[in-house]
Amino acid sequence: MREMAQDYASLGVTEIARTVCELLEWKRANGKLKDQECRQLLERLRDQGRLTLPPVRNSGPRGPRHIPLSEASAPQATLEGSAGEFEPLELRAVQSQSERRLWTELIERHHYLGYRVPVGANLRYLVRSQSGEQVLACLLWSSPAWKMAPRDQWIGWNEEQRAQNLQLVVNNSRFLILPWVRVRGLASKILGQCARQLPGDWELRYGYRPLLLETFVDARRFRGTCYRAANWIHIGQTQGRGRMDSEHRAHGLAPKDIYLYPLYRNVRQQLCQHPNLKSLSRSDS
Fold first, then answer.
1. Rounded CA gap, 203 and 95, in Å?
2. In this structure, are 206 and 273 located in the same domain?
């Protein structure tokens, strides 16, 4: 990787990452390069002094990304009732530019963590009411935490098994019920429907079906009631480090409650093996 960073320095960091992926055959199940993850790894190795990368090319102002807000994400009239009154719910994977813009605005404006560019495999959802017009919620599913002791102990895998099968875990990294939506039982209803729909949507985009869902809940703000109601399993707390902190340096973050949701029977045994996901059927769930 040092040699490639040196030999292809004129190409820029992004092209170096793609070249590394091609030469090392670092690809997703659908054949696409894992260039975002590779770039993140290269930057970490650079920060550790293990290799040298070319300076980032000046492509415009740097710093936090500015998300322009429009009337589309502005607060609306309060919606009240029970979840059943709004069924059937439509969970639509975001695809078009207009949907991406709306989703990004809603998260930036109304989620307490705001918008961050997701790294690696991810799916964004807009949840609408039965009329198809009213947006009720937004979700983001993305790559899992690299290491997490309570989860790894619950699964029971070793280092090699985790490295091989970590991509089969998907993280619910954003879940936003819009603040003017006060509908009883809606959050758990969405989580249940998403657990049924996500595996197929993920397979369409990335070529394989995930086995396990995870999420982190800030206990200072939330009680995790909707996850418990949707049969997610509370297994412990994080240690207050970032999700990619494999060297135990990034302390200072608030610990969060960890919840898991197995998508198939015997999921722990499957994650400790080398599963052929395409052989899994709905009868296994």
1. 15
2. yes
Q: Are residue 29 and residue 123 in the same domain, yes or no?
A: no
Closest CA to 114 of 69, 180, 70: 69
Q: Are residues 254 and 196 in the same domain?
A: yes
Whether the model clears a pTM of 0.90, i.e. scores above it, the answer is: no
Give the pLDDT score at 94.
96
What DSSP string runs through 90-135?
EEEE--SHHHHHHHHHHHHHHSTT---PPPSSEEEEEEE-TTS--E
Q: Are 125 and 93 in contact (CB under 8 A)?
A: yes
Clarify whether residues 43 and 77 are in a common domain.
no
**pLDDT tens column, 246-280:** 444 444 578 899 999 999 999 999 999 865 544 44
Domain that holds residue 10: 2-47
For residues 103 and 109, give the distance between their C-alpha atoms in angstroms, rounded to a whole number.
10
* Each residue's pLDDT tens digit, 121-148: 899 999 998 776 789 999 999 989 888 9
